[in-house]
UniProtKB/TrEMBL annotation:
Family matches, as InterPro entries: Cupin_2, RmlC-like_jellyroll, RmlC_Cupin_sf
Domain of life: Bacteria
Domain Cupin type-2: from-to ranges: 40-100
Pfam families (UniProt xref): Cupin_2
Name of the protein in its database record: Cupin domain-containing protein
Length: 120
């Protein structure tokens, strides 16, 4: 399990085409990729299971906890991303609710685009 950040501070100022915004890059793929938005209400849970393919969880709002097979829950919040390798056991839960983007692909390598926050 690896943790990344995609908050504003990790982004790059874009001014091309008379633009004025900050872009935090996340991932790039050439192969089939599934992208979804996950909404967990209060006390929501994504049960303990193995990742079918490499999976990147991007917390957009709210907060929760995640774990792998170590049983230690680690807090995650908006602007943070969690990466699980194929076959890695994991679980996500929240007491207050959270919204996240989930990206699944055999071709994920988030360390090429986002700064590593910590590895577990």
């Amino acid at each position: 399990m690896e943790f990344y950040t995609f908050n504003k501070e990790s982004g790059k100022q874009i001014s091309k085409f008379n633009s004025d915004f900050i872009m935090s890059r996340i991932i790039q793929t050439d192969k089939a990729t599934n992208i979804g938005c996950m909404h967990l209400d209060k006390n929501g849970i994504v049960g303990y299971h193995q990742a079918v393919v490499p999976q990147l969880l991007l917390i957009l709002s709210g907060e929760g906890t995640v774990r792998n097979d170590q049983e230690e829950y680690i807090k995650v919040q908006a602007g943070e991303a969690v990466f699980w390798e194929k076959d890695e056991w994991h679980e996500t839960k929240t007491t207050e609710g959270l919204t996240a983007i989930v990206i699944e692909s055999f071709e994920l390598n988030p360390s090429l685009f986002m700064p590593v926050q910590k590895e577990i």
